[in-house]
Amino acid sequence: MAKKAPKETSTPLIIALVFFVLTTIAFGVMWYMQFSDQEAKAEAVAKEIKATKAATALTKEAELNAKLYRIYLGIDEGTDKTDVKGEHKAGDKLSTELKKINDAVAKKLGFDDASKLPEEWKVWAVDEKGMIADPPAKGVLEPVGKLLTDRDTAITEQEKSSKLYKDAVAQIDVQIKSNKASEQKFNDLTKVLPKEFDDKIKDVLKAYNKRMDGFTAAEKASRDEINNQLEAIGKLERDKTLLDKEVASLVEKSNGLIRQLTKKADTFQYDEPQGKILRRLPEGIIEINLGSASLVRPGLTFTVLPSDFPEKGRQSRVLAIRVANERGEYKTVQRFVEKATIEVIEVVGANLSRCRVTQEYDPIRDGAAPGDLLYNSVWRKGTADHIALLGIFDTNGDGTDDIEAVIRDLTRMGIPVDAYFDMKTRKWVGTITEQTRFVIEGWYPNQGAQDPNRDDKTRLLGEMQKAIKFAQEKGVGAVKFQDFFPRMGYKAKIDVPADKINQATAPYLNKVAAGESPVKP
Asked: Which domains does the chain possess?
């Protein structure tokens, strides 16, 4: 049987266990105390960090507000504007602060709110969304400085006005003293002037009566002289009337002589027909037996006469026609009447061209028909006569000289215009040669007894007669355009009122400045 262990062997174990338990409890208490202290320190550190952040935020807010105020005042520095613009958001404290500043300024200036401020005080605005506008280039101190300047200027002007007022008061005082002295002098004079005035009145009346007597005598002499002058004027007017009648008679005789000098024989009595009508087509188109072989070109014109015209002669086509003048009065004139005038519009072949009717005197009873003969006073098959122009060529009766258009049209037809008489320079432009066959005479200026340009027209007519004589000495015959144009089929107004001819002549008189020649042949 085993022996029991003695009791002394468990005591160290118990002691060790108790020591272990006590040590564990001590360490646990110590660890607990250490952990509790560490937690308190961490909480204190967190509080310090939070307080630091709050202080930093307040500092930053204060700095931004300071920058806001500096920008508003216009004394910003460095990056104030970019910092405020970068940190700002809609509705933040910066916009609230700026709105307070604007409202406070408005209240101080006596306005309800910032929206009613004058434009110069609307330095920096906040919109409806709470967004601050871009920082201003100039702050609020600028209008304040302007106000100070205006105040100083006003003070200076007020001082000047005050000085002027004082000077004016001093001048008024001087004037008052002067007026008082004048008043005293006037009072003194009123005591002695009445007698002197009466004496002067008597002297003036005496001189007036003397002048009246002289005026009456002078008036009688003037009346007698006026009567004598009126009698002399009456005699001069009677003499002038007689002279005017004599001048009118001489002018009429002069015009008659001019008409006689310019009247020529029928130059075209031996004209030969150049072709004939082959057929008449609808729409006024006519085919003729002339073409490229005869050097026909578009624009060439012909007069159409009946096939028996060479046998019957010119007198067979002379008719009595009623013509109205510019006053609406009719007179009967004898005039050569062609059947029609035509213009070449297309050269079809060597001996064929198409023409259009430009004018027809009686298209129903006496219209252009196959077999009718074609005449042109200056055009020949393959060639054309050379001509010169002199006078007024008002081809449409509108009171304007159409010589430029006439030269252009004749040239287009292939009819050479060697020269024309320039009514402005009153000289031939171009050269009349041995090839020139005709001088075509246009209208001559009309004269009257009361015409203010009578003398100038007389000189112009004299120069025109010299030009005609020069051409005749060259062996060139003169032909009236009334005979020439109808014979070649050129359309022109034959009857033009005298007032229209004078109107067309006016630019060529000395009272109107002469310009350059219209065109050179």
From this structure: 271-376 (2.40.10.410), 383-521 (no CATH)
